[in-house]
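Continuing the batch. This is chain 6 of the set; chains 1 through 5 are on the previous pages. Same settings as before, nothing changed between runs. Recording input and output for traceability.
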Amino acid sequence: MMLLYDYWRSSAAYRVRIALNLKGLPYEAHSVHLVKDGGQQHQSDYRALNPQGLVPLLTDGSFRLNQSLAIIEYLEDTHPSPALLPADPQSKAQVRAFSQVIACDIHPLDNLRVLQYLTGPMEVSEERKLVWYQHWILEGFKALEKMAASYADAGPYCFGEQVTMADVCLIPQVYNADRFNCPMTDFPRLREINDNCLKLEAFQKATPEQQADAT
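Output for chain 6:
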């Protein structure tokens, strides 16, 4: 059985939980609390497993892999059904591009370690931190709304009738937007996709509040 080093509020780990559930893969979750004890991800035993000191980390036998998109693509290669990436090269590239807007452009700027640095060494107030957080989500969502709207007639999900890696990445980011009170009125297509995905058991089981370490 695969082992997922996880944290209930980590949106990157949330993506991997969704992917594992969609593919029907059993796994054991091991909580790495990102706040307790000064952040358990910084402890030497975890750093020995993942030198970057972030979650998620997936182990499959003796194989270890960090970075959520790399993990999802590994699962896609090793367990190709149901597919989370289209077979067509151009469609596949579009799904990857959508996913990377979230995983590479939006999420890193609002990650916990960035927020802690803002309110710590940079001495940014909580109010200004919230402005920062909302700004980068809304900037990214403007592009994603246009990308997703062009496929609105194709089906209920980001790229049509089939759930893809794009949906797997979007739903945790919408969760974060709601958590930090980002106004979503300008993103009706993203909200619609979110509602459609959350009707699926694989997404429901992966929500942060359903995890054993949720507080």
